[in-house]
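Thread: Newbie trying to understand structure tokens

Hi all, I'm a second-year student working on a class project, and my supervisor (Dr. K.) asked me to get a predicted structure for one chain before our next meeting. I've only ever worked with sequences, so writing a 3D structure as a token string is new to me. If someone could post the tokens and maybe explain what I'm looking at, I'd be very grateful. Here's the chain:
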Amino acid sequence: MSDTITLAAETRDRVGKGASRSLRREGRVPAVIYGQNQAPSAIHLEEKALVKALSSGHFMNSVIMVDGQRTLAKDVAFHPVTDRPTHVDFFRISADATVTVAVPVVFVDEEESPGLKKGGVLNVVRHELDLVVDAGNIPSEISVSVAGKDVGDSIHISEVTLPQGAHPAIEDRDFTVATLVAPSALRSEGAADEDAGEDSAEG
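---
Reply by user tm_fold:
Sure, no problem. This is what the structure looks like when written as tokens:
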């Protein structure tokens, strides 16, 4: 499960571009908390603390306590040149809410895959899975086993073990998570063999 992140915040007395620029010069990042049929709260955060939280790798799929409120980060804007965070949108959630989050995929059991042992390549179609989960039990990652998979095999979402209570946001199809493909050298040899066969047939 993803750890809860806690960020201290202060209320913004003034809003607008001028006020935001002034805050950024002071090492603060403007932000807003919205949702749950409550009025949006204009706040600002310490940039250093925000950058540290962003570097955790699971900022976008963790419960974040901001100013005593349970939230999820919905959007982070960055400066196009310096890449410093310039604004954050937080969405209020209740303790028993279900939320849709993008959870990173980690592939395991690679030593048990005949296809990978032959030199096959794992072609990852989805590096993250959009899951509907309980807000208090957001997984930090989803493990996907490639055990028994050979060249030409695919792994679909129906084969992936999800945490209890979690289900894919996409429910209308059994989408592909990854495929096991032949290495480019083997593919080109196969194409060459086919060409040679066609040539001999023509001769």
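A couple of things are worth pointing out once you decode it. The chain has two domains: 5-93, 99-202. The domain at 5-93 is CATH 2.40.240.10 (Ribosomal Protein L25; Chain P). Feel free to ask follow-ups in this thread.
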